Records
---
Amino acid sequence: MKNRLTSFSQNLRKGMTKEEKHLWYDFLKNLPITVNRQKVIGNYIADFYISSAKIIIELDGSQHYTEKGEKDDAERDDYFRSIGVKVLRFSNRQIHENFSGVCTEILSAVDKSS
C-alpha cells in the first residue's frame, strides 16, 4: 500500500493542477520553512505538508463538493486531527479570487503553531 501511495504521490507532483502550481511557485516554495508537496501521511496523500507546523494544506476542486467527496474529506481530516495535524482547506476558487487572503491565512496558522 505504502509503495503504491508513494508512486501515486510522485505522479501527482508531476501533474499538479494550475491552482497547486500557483500556490506552490508563487508562495509556498519561497517560505523559509520546509513544505512538502503530495506528502504520504498514513493512508493518505496531503497536497502540501508543513511538518514543522504540523499543518496540511488541501486545495479542493469540484470533486470535493459532492456527497462522497465531503464524506471522504471528513474521514481524512478526522485522521489527520487524530495524529495532531491541522488541516487548512481552500477551494480552487479561493486561490483564483483571494490568493493573498489564502496566503495570509496559511502564514497565520504557521505563526500560531510555533
---
Amino acid sequence: MAMNYRQYIVRDAAICAGEPVVKGTRVTVRTVLASLAEGMSVAEIVKDFPTLDEDAVRAVIAFAAASAEEDLPIPPAPSHA
C-alpha cells in the first residue's frame, strides 16, 4: 500500500514562497530530496532536521514519486497493424 503523503506535505503561499514543505515545518521537499540525492540516509536527515521523522521523509519520497508519475508522458500504445 502506497504511503498517503498528503497528511505530511503542504503548500502555502505564506510558507517558503509556496514550495511544498513538510507540514508544521519550513523544510522543503526539495531540501529533503537533495539530501537523499547527496547520499544521506533517512537517519542522517532526521538528525539534521529534528522537526522531521522517518515517516515525513518517506512521505517526501512518496510525494516525489507521485509527482514524477504525473509528469511522465504516456507512451503510445503499440500498433497492431
---
Amino acid sequence: MRDFSGELATLAKRVEEAEAYLGLPRLRAELQSLEAEVARPDLWDDPDRAREVTTAYGRAKDDIDLLESLGGRLSDAKTLYELAVEEEDDSVEEEVGAAVASLSRELDALELRALFGGEYDERDAVADIHAGAGGTDAQDWAEMLLRMYLRWAERRGFSVEVDEVSPGQEAGILSATFIVRGRYAYGLLAAERGVHRLVRISPFGAHRRETSFASLDVVPFMEDASDEVDLDEKDLRIDTYRSSGAGGQHVNVTDSAVRITHLPTGIVVSCQNERSQFQNKARALQILAAKLAERQRAERRAELDAISGPQGDIGWGNQIRSYVLAPYQLVKDLRTGEETGNVEAVLSGELDQFMEAYLRWQRSRRDGG
C-alpha cells in the first residue's frame, strides 16, 4: 500500500485553512439569519431586497455545503486508508488515491477565492471591448477578443448578455458591451483589464505580419447601482438609432437602439439588443450607473488609475498581454510573466491560468506593500 499519510495530513491542513479564509463560523451565523429572512411571507413585497437576500442565502449555503463535503470526504478517505494499513489490504489503494487527487483538485479551485481582495470581486461584471491601433486588423482582433471572453464565460458556467456591438467598417467590430453574470465574474475579469496586442499574418490586404491592439475595460455591475449615483436628466444626451443586430438574438427593424452620453464625464453607453427602446434605455441607464458608481468609488479611494485600469492609448507601449501567432506561437502576460504556446486554447477561452497568475501577482504586490 502506498503511503498516503503525508498527503492526507496536507489535505487536512488545507481544509482547515479553507474554513478559516471562508469564515465557516461567520457563514453559519449568516445562514441562520438569512433563513429567517427567506421564510418571511412578505419577502417578495420588495423584489430587489428579495433577490439580494436569496442570492446571499444561496451563496452562504453553497459555501457551507462545500466545506462540510470536503471535510466529510477527507474523513472517509483517512478512515479507509487507516483500515487498509491495519489490515494490510492493498485493494483500496486506487480508491484512496482517487479520493486524494479529487480533494486536492477541489481545494486548488477553492484556494483561488483567498486571492480575491476587492469589495466587489463577487459581483457580476460590465465589460467593454474597443478596437485600437491597427485598422481592420484591430477591428477583427476586437471581435476575436469578444469571442474569447464569451467562450471563457461559457466554460465557467457564467451567463452573458451582449448589450451592444458596433460593427467594423470592413470586418470585425469597433466596440462591444456585455454583462457577465456569475460569482466572482468581476474579480476574475478585472485581471484582463487593459490593452491586448496581437501579432499575426494579416488575413487582409498584403498578407504580411501585422500588429494590432484592442482593449478590455471592466466595472462591477449591480442592479441597484443607481442608488449610489444621482443621474440628472439634464446631464444626459439620449440618442436613438437603428440596431445593426450584431451579437443579438434578433434584429431590430425600428430605431429602438439607445445611446446615452453622460455630459459631465463624457462616458458613453449603448444598448441595442433588448426588444424595445424602453428596455434598451433602462439597460443603458443601469450600465451607465454602474460605470459612474465605479468612478466615484475610485475617486473616493484616490486610486483612480489603479481601479479604472490603463488610461493610455490602445496601442504600442500600453499592452498587458501579447498574443503572437507568427512567426512563432506564444501568449505572454507582460505583468506576471505567465505564458503558454497553446494560443488556440487561449483564444478558445482557456484563460484561467492567466487570471490566477494575475491574482497571485496582485496579492504578492499587496502583501509586499
